[in-house]
Structures are given as C-alpha cells and as structure tokens.
Amino acid sequence: MVTAQSKETEQYNVIGTRPIRHDGVDKVTGAAQYGADLNLPGMLAGRVLRSPHAHARIVSIDTSKAEALEGVQAVITNADFPRAGDEEIDTGEGTANLKWVLDNVIASDKVLYKGHAVAAVAAADHHIAEDALELIEVEYELLTPVLDVRDAMVDGSPLLHDGLHTAAMDGSQSDNPSNTASHLQFTKGDLDSGFAEADVVLEREFETSMAHQGYIEPHNGTAFYRADGTLDIWTSTQGAFVVRDSVAPLLQLSPSQVKVTPMEIGGGFGGKIPVYLEPVAALLSQKTGRPVKLTMNREEVLLATGPTSGTYMRVRMGAKRDGTITAADVHLAFEAGAYPGSPVGAGAMCALAPYDIPNQRIDGYDVVVNKPKTAAYRAPGAPQSEFATESVLNELAEELGLDPLEMRLQNACVEGAQRADGFTYGVIGNVECLEAAQESPHWQSELQGPNRGRGIAQGFWFNIGFESSAYAQVNGDGTVPLVLGSTDIGGTRASIAMQLAETLGISAEEVHPHVVDTNSVGYTQVTGGSRTTFAGGWAAYECAMDIRRQMEERAAQIWECDAADVTYGDDAIIRGPQDEDGNDQQFTFKELAGQLVTSGGHIVGRADVNKTSSGPAFATHIVDVEVDPDTGKVDILRYTAVQDAGTAIHPAYVEGQMQGGVAQGVGMALNEEYYYDESGDLKNASLLDYRMPTALDLPMIETNIVEVPNPGHPYGVRGVGEVPIIPPAPAVRAAIANAIGVHMNELPMSPRAILDATLPSGD
Amino acid sequence: MASEHIVVNCTINGEQQVFLANERDSLLEALRDRIGLTGAKEGCNNGNCGACCVNMDGRIVNSCLVMAAECEGSEIRTVEGLAEGDQLSPLQNAFLEQAALQCGICTPGFLVAAEALLEQNPDPSEHEIRYWLAGNLCRCTGYDKIIKAVQQAAGQSVV
Question: CA dihedral in degrees (A540, A545, A551, A554; nearest 10)?
Fold first, then answer.
C-alpha cells in the first residue's frame, strides 16, 4: 500500500507538504470578497420574477405598473434581449444552443419549470425591486406538466419543445418530435452469449431523485455597462471565460467588450458553470447606465438553478459461480430538466468503468421534463449510474456467497483494459484502492450489534485536462507572484503555487498566487472536471521551466559564458562554469533575483497548456450503518474512503475533497431529494426541507490516500474532487441490506422509503 | 409601500455605530449594506444555514432572523471582530492549520458559533461540538476538519 507519506513523494520538497493556504487569512477574517459582497457607487439592486407554474405558455406580460413604481429604474423581459440565433456556444463542460441558453436565463414563449425566470427589475434597493415584482402582470395558459422521466418518453406525452427530435449517435433524428433529446449506446462483445455463460443473472430497477449541489453561497452577478460599450461583470463562477463567452453573444457584444472578474466563490460543485443572473444584470445595466447587482435567495437557487438528474435505471448482470462477471446490460434514462443536456453520456461511460466485463451494452437517454435544467454536479452522471451497477454487483456477490471486495478485485480493470466506449486505460490505481481498503483497519474490524451492517462500493471518474494559463514574475527579493485564471473553490491557489514552487526550488510561501479577470490572464477552462490542480499545475510547471531557462540565460550573460554551460538545479542553485581563476560560479535563486534589474530587467515566465490527456481516478469506500427499524432513520457509524490521487500535492486538501465528497454522497444516499407534487410544484425548496447532512449526521471520515502517480503529468497528478461522491450511495445501500436484509431500489433511502420497504403494507 | 427609516445605535466589534436602517432590513442586511461589514454571509435568509451567524449580547444569532431595528443598544460581534489587529485568534489559526475550510463561505458563521461554544464549554466532547455546530451548514468539508479545528483550539490533541 502506498500512502501520502510514501517514497513517491519524499523526492519532493514542497509537494506532499501541508502549507497554510495563501487565501486562508482572508477567509477566516471575513475579508475575502465573494460575489454578493461587492458594493459599487450608484449600484442598483435587481430581482427576478419567476413562474409559479411548471408548464405554461406565456400569453402576455404587462410591466407598466412595475415601471411606474418610485425607485424602479428598469424592467426587462426576454423580448428586450437581442434575438438569439441558432448557434452553439461553449458552456464550460460542453456546448449549448444559444436560444435555449437565453430561454433558460429568461423565458420567451413558454415557462418550463416552476421558478423559470420571466422578467427582471432594477431598483434603488432590493425591497423596492421585490415590491415591483408583485406589480408585473403575467397571463399564462396552463399546459400539462411532464414530471416523470418514463412518462416523458412515451409516445403521446405532452411535449416541452415542439421542434425537439431524438438524436442518435450517428447524427440521425427521429421523424416525430419527442421529449427524448438523444439516445446513445455503447457495446462490447456479445451480450447473449455473455448471459448464456453466467450461472446467476440478476436484474434490478432503480429510481433516483433530482438532487442539488447545495453550495452555501447563492448565485449572484453584478454588471456595469459603460457608455463606451464595455461591460464589466463580477460574479461567483467556476469559469470566468465561460461567463464572458455566454454573455457576449447573448447581448451581441464582442468578447473584447466583456471583462469578467471572478469573485471568491462559495461552493459550486458544477452548479456555478452556467450563467443565470449575469446576462440579466448586464442588460439591466445597459438599460440604466448604472451598475446592477442581482442575487438569488435560497428558494430561487433550489427552484431555478441546475440540480443533477433524477433517473430511471435498469441493470442486468450475470456472473459465473466463481465470481467472474460475464455480461452486463445497463439502461439509463436521465432527466435533463427543461432543456436537453443531462449528464447521461458521462454516466453511461462510467457505469461499468471499474470492471473488465467482456460483454456489455449501455443505453442512455437524455429526456426533457418540466423541472429545472440540470447542470454538472460533482462527477456528473456517475453517482446515479454507478449506484445502479455497484448495487447489482453487491447483490450478485451476496447471491454467490462471495466477498464483495474479492469479487471486485477479481473483475477489476487494470492497465490495458478497454471500456465499452472504447477508452483504453493506462496506469490506474483501481486494484491498489481495493487492496488498500482490504488492508484497512475498518475492513479488518468486526461489526457487532443489531440492525447494523457494513457495505462497500467502488467508484470511477475520468478527470479532465484542457486549457489553463499562468504567468509569474520574479521579484528582486526572490518572491514570485503567480497569476492564474482558475477560480479557487477549495485550495487550488495553494496546490498550483506548490507545483510552481517545487519546480523553482523555492518555498510555497515565496509564491503569491492571484486569480484575475479575463483580460489579465490567458484562456482558462472552468474549475471543474477535477482539472484545476492537474492542468493548472501543469501550466505552473511549464511557467517555472520558462523562468528557469531565462535565469540560466541571465546568469550566462552576467558570467559572460554560453547559456548551455549554465544549469538551474532542482535545489534552486544556478551553476556556471569556473571563472578565469578557476573558482566555481553560482547563484542562489534569491541572489540572481536580486541582480535581475541591474543585469537586463525583470523575468516573467508564462505558459498556456491544453492537455487532452488525463489521469483516471478510482475510489473504494467502506461504511458501517445502523438502521432504526421504528423510524427508518439510518445513522452512519463509521466511514473509510480510499482513493488514488495520483500524487497528493497538498494532502490536507485531498483529504478534504474526499471527506466533502463523502458527505454529499451520503446526503444523496439518505436524505436529499427534489420532492414535487403532481402540478410540478417543488414542495421542499428550503434548506430546512432539502435536508443536507449536518455536523451531527456524520462521524469523522477516515481517509486513505493511495498514490499511483499519473505518468501523464509532470508531478503525477490525477485530480481528486469528483470520484469520492460516487461510492457512498451504493456502499450505504449495501450496508442497509447487510443490517436489515432489505435492498433499497431508490434514492434517497430516506426514513420514509425505508419504512415503505420494511413495514407491512396497510391492505 | 414606501419604507420608513430608523436610526439605530449599537456597538459592533467594540466600536460605537449609528446607522440608518430601512424598517424592513434584517441585522444581516444592515451589517452588509449599511455598515459595510460583509463577513457575515447570506446562505438562506431563513435561519437554516448559519452562514450569517453573529454574536449579539453574548448569544449567537442568525442575523438574517433579527431585525436591524431590534439592535438598538446591543453589543454585536462579527467575524471581523475575532482577530486583534493582525493577531488571529487561536480558533482562526486552528481553522487554517487543520485546513478546515475549502470555499470559505460558511467559515465566518462557524468561527463565530465555535468561539461562543468554547467560551461556554472550554473542553467540549466531539459530540458536543457536532451538536453545537449542527445549525451551521458546510457543503465542502464533510465537517471532519472543522471539528478537529475546534478540538485543536480547545487544546485537545487532534489525531
């Protein structure tokens, strides 16, 4: 077993240590400026009017009374935006149709979910803006809401979009319009012969509810459109460039007219990639000539931002008596919400990803329903699809009388294994995670007591790379300001700065990272996909190598020798040839930094990377639970998370990602759900009723960082943020089954659901 | 629907303050919009998340549920009042050393709440810490490192 303090990391001076994060003091003193903290001279407050209906045609909107209210400066609707064309724009982790992006920001002809934005007001303060909303008169023609993913797929179901046809992977479209936006399929081997080889075949159906990222900071957006046609936006976003490239076409501006400043962000988990308020604030500012700030309240966040998909899933899996899995057939139907774009594709690719199963078929359907348009949520699609497959695997092991961990080891993907979608693994830590879990004190311990049980599950996530930019200047005192484009959502200033420091041979504290606006750094993709420490760190590494090369050249100039005879060592000593008197010539980094100004000027290193490679992540989780048979409440008694991080740059923040992922996964497993009535009204749009885990709901979460360095990264980084949300739900399900003998087939496994499954029915 | 304004006198982080509040302003709105102390955050505006937690006359309150007009004569302490100049409090240092924050939006509320806990109960058990902090939601950390930071600030050994 390889751990965070292993030989792999002992070769480093900075990587693998736990420095205080650079932005830490601001965040414990209240000085850090989040989006809603911004206050500009002359600023107006904006509010958004939202649909009370899940599905309706907008017949008319009368804003005249609102406009007449004292203190109101502007009222806008969709009609005030330039007509959005039928073009695709980059939305961070994919592309989207511009008209649909605009219609989701503010509805045009139809409202498609409760909370859908219909109009917006800018006023002297938010009290007046709220009063004005009540004066806007909207006439609706009610339509039948479509709320269940299976109902939505049936021919004859009411349609959300008249022009939507089912797209197949070959690009063809269905003849008839449908709520099913797309169908994808991955296959491998021969399914029939695979099932024929199996001694045991199990089939299970699952339903999971929509769930929200639940970041504590509501969305916000402030805009100031100036008379010269430039637009400033300040917002809490995971991708400042995505905001720029969404807002500019929506307002028909050039990207060069739009500058986006990413404020500190109070959580995102994928949900702060799309734009909601920013285009509205921009148009309100254009209308008023004044800065306009919009913020959402919590109800708006839950009703009208981007939760993850609810699903219907069916899995059939067959295995030989010895535990060899011979075939798997997976059907995934994902709610996209109001517009196409659920994470079913990623869910499909992840569904069986940890296992080398020769015969597979995975079908995925992206289905629109009258619920909010889904957005990315931590390993988008995988917590659902892997819940289904891991659950069936656990039941197969039970049926065969095999150890579920051993059965996973027996079928685990290793280097060279190929997934059904065609991807072939390089060096991965799948087996290493399972083995570390097997050796863990938790797995080795005995669990005793009534209504208690233990469960295990595996998780897989891709991780991604793509574009990141960095530049860094060497100051005369040997400190290095580092300029980044990645929003720091959980310690990435530190993890990127540490990789620059490691490469230069200086301390983490001598690097000063800064996250800047879109005009002040090169293009940088979103903070998401577990990519920031991977790609940002790679950019920092190349930036540091650029500095090393320039410092070698400068030393050569000072020593009047050939630059090829100067070497910048990993100890941050720059060594040259002996001088005329035969003395060694060398500079420390700090000494040479002090001579830069007088020897030719400052040195700036820069790097822009675009990495299409990545280092896949695997995780193994073990959980002990106790079920109260009278109330159906499940308590988490003990939790261990094992994960391959590649190289753990800052182990404390790697542990933090693992623990945070577990907490969200446990929430998804036990409590969190979007609870709609039949009219499409969300009945639990508050943090009291949308029940996220509190400090009292969880034990300490034991972590075990496995390090199988990624050979495709200068420091072996894989990415850590997403995979830990995947195993909790199937592990908790297995533990509940182990405790009370009942296999739950829905998420969340709430007290209500458990009592429904365990109590005798009333009839 | 025009709002009345009210003059409020109170002490905030040891300083006398006089401000003009809209009669509809909560204490949270007054702190953030009238006084410019934006350390207390709005996460839910209905008392469920604890991000706006401040100390009012020795009690921790969700400032979104207190009207600004109720603060006449009160002593209020916010996250901005925890450090003395550039000297962080033991709790603030513990949060940094234990990596007890990720995005940081819930951190001001946790610090104010945990400080009040340690004033009342200088040596709390893990369960007592979890119980006390159950009114503060954190979505990033899974609470583990927050609990450890409070244990460290209480002088307990942290595994």
Answer: -120
Out of B24, B41, B145, closest to residue A266 by CB: B41
Size of interface A-B (CB pairs under 8 A): 192
Distance from CA of B32 to the nearest CA of A (A): 8
- Arithmetic mean of pLDDT, A526-532: 94
Nearest residue of A to residue B38, measured between CA atoms: A37
- Residue reference for tokens 């497993």: A669
CA distance A551 to chain B (A): 34
Express each pLDDT in B62-92 by its tens digit. 999 999 999 999 999 999 999 999 999 999 9
B5-79 is a CATH 3.10.20.30 domain: yes
The pLDDT of residue B159: 75
Task: Please state the pTM of the whole predicted model.
Answer: 0.97
**CATH architecture of the region A465-611:** 2-Layer Sandwich (3.30)
3.10.290.10, 3.30.365.10, 3.90.230.10, 3.20.20.70: which CATH number matches A1-32+432-461+614-763? 3.30.365.10
| Beta-bridge mates of residue A642 | A620, A704
- CA nearest to A216 within chain B: B43
Interface with B, mutate which of A17, A23, A26, A27 (most B CBs under 10 A): A27
The model's pLDDT over A267-283, given as tens digits with 9 standing for 90+, comes to 999 999 999 999 999 99
Q: What is the spatial distance between Cα B123 and Cα A491, in angstroms, rounded to a whole number?
A: 30
Instruction: Render pLDDT for A731-751 as a digit per residue (tens, 0 to 9).
Output: 999 999 999 999 999 999 999
Rounded Cα gap, residues A705 and A106, in angstroms: 44
Return the pLDDT at A10.
65
Reply yes or no on whether the pLDDT at A131 is more than 60: yes
Q: Give the minimum alpha-carbon distance from A265 to chain B in angstroms, rounded to a whole number.
A: 6
- Gap between the Cα atoms of A252 and A81, Å rounded: 9
The answer for residues whose C-beta is within 8 angstroms of residue A746's C-beta and 6 or more apart is: A206, A207, A208, A209, A753
Q: Which residue of A has its CA nearest to B131?
A: A696
